[in-house]
């Protein structure tokens, strides 16, 4: 039990070695066995977070904590992977589950007559980048606010589940939900000027995260903040730290907001149209920065936008929303659109293929039939329905040139196709 201190005295302290005796006490606040006050002091029980952090900083203790008797820690020169203890403690890995899974989410105002988001379903794996696209008013941003617990006044969750790491966040107490947001789930807001507090310096707003969440002293928080501001590409982090938001351009403010969202290394970042207020050159820089930062940290990203070109090579999975519903889910970018609405969105884009953002998979080679193969923009006729409109059939049917009788009578389900694709259109198979 004292191997992590360089001692192997063979003492029997009444500890169950199949469990992490000290790491567990640090992580979940378990009480130490009676009669072992020295162990209480070592684990930092009853002490501050800073005291426990000093314990973890000890190289010997740190090595112990990295693999506490789970078949990964060497004890007395023995490889536990080959020892009986290591064999007994080895646990077969469970199949990986999605980091984020939204099931049947319905968001509404009042008594439910106004439903901007209906039966939304999407999933996001660890380290994956997914895009959520659609026209203005399709429910994209409201979905993000519902995910982060930031719904506007009068809005509420009418039905559905939001599972994050297997736990339904909608059932969490308010305090635990707040602790989750920021620590494990970060958000980049659409307008950085309104997202930042105009009466506080950039340094105050960034360092506040470390001081409140991690209990750091002011100087420690400042050092971490300066390093973070430098990492997001601000040319003079020290000057930026002392400056107010109004002194920055839109692109620099957005870099600050990205820094704040990634400060605590969250597992998921929700980027709500982070390039809307930026010119194309700065927007490309922000997208590349976000791509690089999330890739090096292994962060999952839900990227919300109405600009499909930004997702041409950025997203591994794309969800297309219209009138509060997901009409198509694709895993091959936007090269082979199936739903008439997705086809219409792509045909309405400027046809210059040089505007495509080549950032990763799906962007290599010549643009596919969905992007860059047109000679002129073709607008979608008509206008999108209001959330209060209760159309009996497909919400896109009044604007669709391929509609037929069933489209106007009943709402199609999501039809499953090969390659993990799904599409809400009666042209394809049976509903899943």
Strand order of the largest sheet: 6-7-8-3-9-10-12-11
Computed CA radius of gyration, to the nearest angstrom: 26 Å
Shape: globular
Number of helices: 14
Largest beta-sheet characterization: 8 strands, mixed
Mean pLDDT: 76
Helix/strand/pairing class, anyone?
Answer: alpha/beta
**What share of residues is helical?**
25-40%
List low-pLDDT spans: 1-46, 59-94, 354-369
* DSSP E strands, number: 12
SSE order, as H and E? HHHHHEEEHEEHEHHHHHEHEEEHEE
Beta-strand percentage range: 15-25%
Q: First CA to last CA: what distance?
A: 54 Å
Keywords:
432 residues, alpha/beta, eight-stranded mixed β-sheet, four-stranded antiparallel β-sheet, 14 helices, globular, disordered N terminus
Walk me through the structure.
There is one protein chain. This protein has 432 residues and is an alpha/beta fold. The chain is 30% helix and 16% strand. The chain has 14 helices and twelve strands. Strands 6-7-8-3-9-10-12-11 form an eight-stranded mixed sheet. β1 and β2 form a beta hairpin. α9 crosses α10 and α12 runs parallel beside α13. The chain is globular, with a radius of gyration of 26 Å. The termini are far apart.
